[in-house]
# Entry
Amino acid sequence: MDTLQSVIAGVTATWLGAVGVGIISVGLRLNNAVQRLTVIVSRLEREFNTQADEIRGLNENRVQLIERLTRLERPARNRG
# Structure
């Protein structure tokens, strides 16, 4: 009976070891995926901020153009 218990204990230990290795492997893959996603999110954040700055600049330019157009049209209205 001792031999059977030894075999069962060995098989159980081997199985638990294999499960542990599998869990570690999955954890490492998840960690790798999270790191990649972090890089992607950081890049997207930089692009978003750049585009937001460009949009702000375009809006400021549009306001300036509207102001210039308004100033140019005032004398024409006064003449007419």
In short: The chain has a mean pLDDT of 93.
